[in-house]
Design goal:
7-stranded mixed β-sheet, 5 helices, 3 domains, 6-stranded mixed β-sheet, Immunoglobulin-like, elongated, about 425 residues, mainly beta
Amino acid sequence: MSKLISDLDINLNIKVRAMVTDNATALTMVAERRLNIASNILQPITITNIAAYKNSYIPGMTYRTKIFVGRNGKSLGRSGKLLVTPTVTTAILGTCYSNHYFSYPWLNVNTQVKRSFTINFDESGYADFEYFDSTQNVEEISFDITLQDARSVQLTDFSSSFDIYPLLDNKPILRMNVNKLRAKVGERIAIDITATRTLNGALTFEVYARGIHIVSERVAINSASTKTHSMPVTKDMIPSAFIIVNHLTQTGNLIADYVYIQVEGNPFKNEVEISFDVTKQQPGETVNMHASADPHSTIYVLAEDLRNRVFGVDNDIFWTDVVREIVDASPSIRQNIRNYKNRNKRADQERQLAKRSHGHLGDLDDTFIESGLIVLSDATISEQKLDLLTSKGYTEVCGEHDTRLASTAGCLLCSNRKYK
């Protein structure tokens, strides 16, 4: 196989065509199969925060997400432990008094490494991640995650990190979490809703799969900021689905969030089977055929002369091709655009997406951009913005180390009074 790869310069996926010609009848039959060549290169283990599209948290609320541990997009097939080390960065804006005649604003930035903790991931590769921090004036929380060795408590070389930023709590925000991100047809998934305000009215749950609206459910919520709801997993959701929840507050704000789940099973809902009473028959004789399908189905039968195969099967569409295209589709709209073969259409679509502000903060606009939907509403749509002091250009030095001071006498009085 290595000689085949080197001689043909192929990329782990080739199509093999076999042609058989009957010399007596000059009939040629053609068959094709795809050959996937497995590489013997062991890919490194990756640790991923699946909610990277919303790298934010709400002060006063527990940050919740799921961490996936796998290799080349697949789970390791075993459970294990991850060591998490949080680092909290705070910033307070104050006034530095160099002397009686000169003062300027300065930013007091501090970084504190918090106590490490462990989380468990199961055989599917997912770990539930929860973190609460009551520290005030937070600018950023960083998490360093390292895989522990399966046979000891020693740490491995496989690690990852991600950052989250605080959101302003003066706007209503909605967060959704599910108990499982990989489900099977027939199971139910539990959905937890948490909001920064007391909600009254209805929560609307919508499920989309393969660009199709699958189902909508409206659930009442009265004078509560949390709600738990469950939804069944159906074949229509294969191989992946977006679950979106939205709510219109009494103040006219439209808030929403979404999760992306993977569904295992066969995407073809109607199982069709065909059998014949004989395998060989002479021209003019009758062949009895038995077909079975779901009740009230319409079955179309096409009889084809195998001599048509002499023209090849490049234009034939098999069910395996359909499944492959569905599975290979990325949950990211941007990724699908990048993979699209038509460069001109890709560029046009990317320019359209660029017109919409994608801040990766998990607000309503981010939610609909990630899920590929467009919202049309006369409600108030609040877009979250990062308001970090560390991004505003304040000096982080007060005293003799500040080169702007004429004297090296230092800071006569450094105040940490926070500016409003």
